[in-house]
Structure prediction request, 499 residues.
Amino acid sequence: MTASPKTAAVPAEDAAHRPAAGLHPVTRDTRPLRLITCGSVDDGKSTLIGRLLWDTKAVKEDQAATLKRDSSGKQNDLGLPDFALLLDGLQAEREQGITIDVAYRYFATDKRSFIVADTPGHEQYTRNMATGASTADLAVLLVDARAGLLEQTRRHATIATLMGIRQFVLAVNKIDLTNYDRARFDEISHEFRELALSLGVRQVTAIPVSALKGENVVYDGRASMPWYDGPTLVEVLELATVRSAQTVGFRLPVQRVSRPGESFRGYQGTVAGGAVKPGDSVVILPSGMVANVTKIVTFDLVRNAAVAGDAITLVLDRQVDVARGDMIVAIDSQPQTGLAFDAQLVALQPGGIEPAKRYWLKSGSRRQRVVVQPTSQLDLKTGKWAPHSETLAMNAIGKVHLAFDEQAVFDPYEQNRTTGAFILIDPDTNNTVAGGMILGKRANVGGLNAGNARVLLSLPADLADRLLASEVFADRRDEVEVRRISTARAQEILDGLDG
Prediction:
């Protein structure tokens, strides 16, 4: 990664009185970068983010005054306040000196704005860490330079990867307590890069950091570490990319059907992927009905188009059966539908996940009955998946088979976080017992699927409707999947075969 221009070395005690980042004003990226700090307990996550907020001038005067008051008797060797108190707001957190819940904070530099989630390091609060990772674009993984990588470090890196994060910053913190030992930094960096490669992550930036002194956070630490010529943490964050939600076609999970009067019927929700405009052909899943978009309405105007993240009301050109929990999608780029899917999940409750138990699965606004069968569990010490058919204990990361009573609609999580994620709810207690990510569709067994195969027919919409309505097809509904495509797309496929 290419570093942006560096700032001059700034003594830690003077950092709070200098302009944030020391960079020349440039055009700011309008999309905030969402990041998460993770790692084992006492690695300094809250202190690092507190220092980042302090040095970028994100701490208001009244907050600074309160911080100095609350830090009475807790000042560090430099006479600065306890930066961790900027993040640890719960009384229990302050009493124990640990992070329990996820704390979200906002800050900005001349180049862009950021939303940071500070997550707990204790194993018993792993579920809170998973919550913070689910919306992040980048993970800052902290390691105590003295202790190196720990099991909880590996657990957090694995969960962040499962949640779709592919940009990591390894912050080797408390490097000052090793007398700025370059060999120790290189050793930890090498070990983490091997872990990252085993998880399929190649974008890793390692930075030696002293969160307490502010070295290589916003201002560089060349005075203490002349051997390091890489970017500071804030420079890496300014150059990071925001994860796109448009890796698939148009997706609108329906939250509500709007009928304010006899002459209007619209379908409301937040666009979860892709884009749509009037005139586009769409499919309502799981029913498979086809319609065209006639109008896109928001709270104050009629729009010519909508993209991921927009809250809209979609008006169609015909009367179709659409209900809360259905999904309206692009006709030429549809998600997977079926009765069985493979998934990965993190168990979040003490009772864990029981094999063959029926749970409620909630994804977006849709809730369905599902049977969960664990198949393997990740050994965080070895990084290997081991066969597993027993209960997945709390904080365990496992692969499972999901079997539904009725048609389910998903994208793989790698393609779309919103339509590929779910939670499991225990029907007996109503507790959320797991958070999961869809890996892909699982082929049914029997009939035409005896060899784990499934027949997929892509047909023009009118022909697909005729086939689905025929009596001959009625007995094959579980063996053959019919996808509707536009006539133009069908012609392109035929032309390709002729060529």
In short: The chain has four domains: 12-239, 251-330, 336-442, 452-498.
